[in-house]
Each structure stands twice: as C-alpha cells, then as structure tokens.
Amino acid sequence: MEPKPKMRAAIPVLPAYDAAASLQWWVTMCGFTETFRDATPPTYVGIERDGTQLHLVGITEENLARTIGEQTMVRIRVDGIAHFYAEFKQRGGVVHPNGPLQTKPWGTTEFAAIDPNGVCITFQE
Questions:
Q1: Kindly report the CA angle at 8 between 27 and 37, in degrees rounded to 5?
Q2: From start to end of 26-92, where are the E strands?
Q3: Which of 19, 23, 54, 57 has the highest Cβ tally under 10 A?
C-alpha cells in the first residue's frame, strides 16, 4: 500500500517587472539569500530564508506586472515576529501604512510591507 500523500511546503512565485530590483529588496530588506537564477540579470530567481522559499518571475509588460503584483498577497509565518519587525525596519524596510506590527482579532501578530512590484507581503506569527 502506498503511503498517504503529505503536503510539505508551498513555494509562491511572485511577479516582478524588474526581477533584479525585487531580488535586491528581498535580500536587503528581508534577509533572504539567493539560491538560483536563470541569467544575469535574472528573469527567474529563487530565494530562501530559514527554509522558507520564494521564486520571483520577471514579467516584461510593465502594466501587466504591476496589475498582477497589486493583486497578489502572500503571508509568511515567522517565529520571533517582533525581532524580525525591528530587523526589517533597521534594514530600511518600509512598513505598509495600514500594516504596522499589531495583534489581529484572529490571533496573529503581524505587519505588512509592499515589495517593489506592489505585492503585499504579510509577515505573521
């Protein structure tokens, strides 16, 4: 009998008009590390921090990239959210005006930021 399937992880693929600029933001502001790229400058690149993986994909049509980006949201679970919040701000990260660190009615403590392509990133504990 085959073992029961078990989902282990998801790897969101985030749109980017300028994949190099998005990569720089994730590395500089969020402390991720580049794990691979398809070219220099990249049009498809992988990043990782503490086992959390994301991929960034370049979209050559700027209006389309912005439209998709502004409709995309991703939540990243973080242990030690207050420390990460301080680290993010110390690195120069800009917190979304409606998303400062706060405990929500549903029980998570979280803050939000917008990446260079308009994707809303919520870090939560």
A1: 35
A2: 33-37, 44-49, 52-58, 73-77
A3: 19
Domain assignment present for residue 73? The answer is yes
Based on the structure, what is the number of domains in the chain? 1
Nearest to 43 by CA among 63, 62, 59: 59
For residues 111 and 99, the answer to whether their CB atoms sit within 8 Å is: yes
**How much is the average pLDDT of 3-32?**
95
Residue 22 sits in a domain whose CATH number is: 3.10.180.10
Q: Residue 2's pLDDT is what? A: 87
pLDDT digits (tens, 9 = 90+) for 63-115: 999 999 999 999 999 999 999 999 999 999 999 999 999 999 999 999 999 99
- Cα separation, 67 vs 28, in Å, equals 24
Q: What is the 8-class DSSP label of residue 5? A: P
Q: How many residues does this entry show for the chain? A: 125
